[in-house]
Design goal:
The protein is an all-alpha fold. Helix content is 53%, strand content 1%. Helix 2 packs antiparallel against helix 5. The chain is globular, with a radius of gyration of 28 Å. This is Sulfhydryl oxidase.
């Protein structure tokens, strides 16, 4: 049983190198698929709707180049450097967008996909059908002699054999074709999943864990380094901020992308209700105050600083908990979590408009009961217990300061610029101090190192050399996080409520009970209206009689 629980976080080959190969490949090909579609604009989950947000070629190209620069420079896969540089060169030289896949599939299936597959399969030699319990049906033909299909299975097989696959919707759990997840395979498998837009590249079960692993491993690689060259670190962190800004506009799950851009990254400032919004109900306070009180994507990204090598890793920890707090599996209270002790218990009361604690389910990792058996691979429970013990004092202090009045004041500041009171400003200052204490305690636990550290030491000299060599970025416009447009009002009719708000709907605000004075006012108004009506009838009768006589 413990093995089954462990498998949620531990694939067949748990090495950081293998997981990074899979993660970067899945992310890049998933975004490529969105970019290859026609039309490629989305209003949340509705494709082609007027006013939608685009998956643009220029952003995809920029994101890919910056991601590859970091992946190569941080030496996640030194053996694959030649192939990775070939993929970077391909994208850098392809300035104009290729035709959509349905119009002309050649570039996507014959150029891009084989180059990407080669770039992320170093270390793989060959395999045969008999090496596996199963291989997906669409790859089986000539598998033993087709090196390309073997590489594809190397990149997708772990997912199709995982518990994550079995968390897909009920009617999709027994669909195992690789072409449902790796785009542009129609030519190689005889299928039509790409051309008929049936891909599952945006499924959180498929891509969610890969993206978070990529984020955490990237942050931890920098945190673990012994590099001290400040100019080099400035360059490295600047590229990290640019890459993240590109990613914000390109998440391959359209709903997830919009949730991040319109809610998470801006503290839900565009909500219409000062109580029924995600900043009030779900996000941990350390996310709301990430980068200060500004509450914007630019403000949050500014917390990633070259003066602190842990800052990228901490940014992803806080962001991951914020996203988890406001998505379906994250905001759901597990039974043991409802019964857990304060401050780790999950408060479940969907009718309570003044929650006991804000948020209902914040800073999930690593202290909630769902992580009890998966923090370590050797079934040692002490890391979970140590985490709760070491963080308890800080979390209780933060919880005692965090309150509804403060959150509403902050939200009104983000929403319309309403001034924050002196009392709330003092609470923010106090919270900032306590959050820093909690963050330092979390770092001392070593949980991120235990799960995401690469076993190959990073060469600072090679890092400096690579960053210097990877300077060419022809026709790539650096994104400005302050200029990411708000979703057009034309999309409003397509937007849906979040899964968490559906689970925890606030009751409708009751109409105010009439007071004695208001009742008397209503009676007086009614009498006045009746007199006016009678007077009108009398005048009308007099006029009518004048015509008769």
């Amino acid at each position: 049983m413990i093995g089954n629980v462990q498998s949620f976080h531990t694939p067949v080959d748990p090495s950081v190198k293998r997981q990074m190969q899979e993660s970067v490949f899945r992310l890049m090909t998933a975004i490529a698929y969105r970019t290859s579609q026609d039309p490629r604009i989305w209003c949340e989950e509705v494709r082609g709707a007027e006013g939608g947000r685009e998956y643009s070629w220029s952003d995809f190209r920029g994101h890919s180049v910056y991601l590859l620069d970091l992946y190569i420079s941080l030496q996640f896969d030194v053996a694959c450097e030649t192939q990775l540089l070939a993929l970077r060169s391909l994208l850098l030289n392809q300035i104009s967008s290729p035709q959509p896949f349905r119009t002309n599939a050649t570039w996507w299936q014959d150029v891009y996909l084989p180059t990407a597959v080669d770039a992320f399969t170093c270390g793989f030699t060959s395999s045969k059908l008999e090496d596996f319990d199963f291989v997906s049906h669409d790859l089986r033909e000539n598998f033993n002699t087709d090196a390309f299909k073997q590489k594809l299975w190397y990149l997708i097989g772990n997912y199709l054999n995982s518990i994550y696959k079995q968390r897909e919707n009920n009617n999709r759990r027994l669909d195992f074709d690789s072409g449902l997840y790796i785009p542009f395979l129609d030519k190689y498998t005889g299928g039509d999943y790409t051309v008929t837009n049936q891909m599952r590249v945006g499924f959180p079960t498929y891509l969610g864990r890969s993206i978070w692993f990529l984020f955490h491993a990237m942050g931890q690689r920098i945190a673990d380094s012994s590099c001290t060259d400040q100019a080099m670190l400035d360059d490295l962190f600047e590229r990290s901020r640019i890459w993240l800004t590109f990613f914000a506009t390109l998440h391959p799950c359209p709903f997830c992308r919009e949730h991040f851009l319109s809610h998470v990254s801006v503290n839900d400032r565009f909500a219409s209700d000062p109580l029924n919004n995600e900043a009030i109900r779900y996000y941990p306070i350390e996310h709301l105050l990430l980068g200060g009180v500004e509450g914007t994507l630019a403000g949050k990204v500014s917390a990633i600083k070259s003066s602190d090598k842990n800052s990228l890793a901490i940014f992803f920890w806080k962001l991951h908990n914020a996203v988890t707090s406001s998505v379906e599996m994250g905001c759901s209270c597990f039974t043991e979590e409802i019964e857990d002790k304060d401050p780790y218990n999950c408060v479940f009361d969907p009718t309570n408009t003044t929650q006991i604690r804000y948020p209902r389910m914040g800073r999930v990792f690593p202290v909630t009961k769902r992580f009890e058996f998966i923090l370590t691979t050797n079934h040692n429970y002490t890391l979970f217990d140590d985490s709760r013990s070491q963080l308890e004092t800080s979390i209780k202090k933060i919880t005692s300061i965090d309150n509804l009045t403060l959150r509403i004041e902050l939200w009104k500041y983000w929403n319309n610029g309403t001034k924050i009171s002196e009392t709330s400003q003092n609470q923010v200052t106090e919270l900032t101090t306590e959050i820093e204490k909690m963050t330092n305690s979390f770092l001392q636990l070593g949980i991120l190192q235990q799960q995401y550290s690469h076993n190959e030491t990073l060469s600072c000299a090679k890092l400096t050399e690579q960053l210097s060599a990877l300077k060419s970025r022809d026709n790539i416009t650096t994104p400005d996080p302050t200029k990411i447009a708000r979703l057009s009002d034309k999309c409003a009719k397509y937007l849906t409520d979040s899964a968490c708000n559906k689970q925890y709907p606030l009751p409708p605000t009751p109409s105010p009970t009439p007071t004695v004075n208001s009742t008397q006012d209503n009676i007086q108004q009614s009498v006045s209206n009746q007199l006016s009506s009678n007077l009108f009838l009398l005048v009308s009768l007099i006029i009518l009689l004048s015509y008769l006589y």
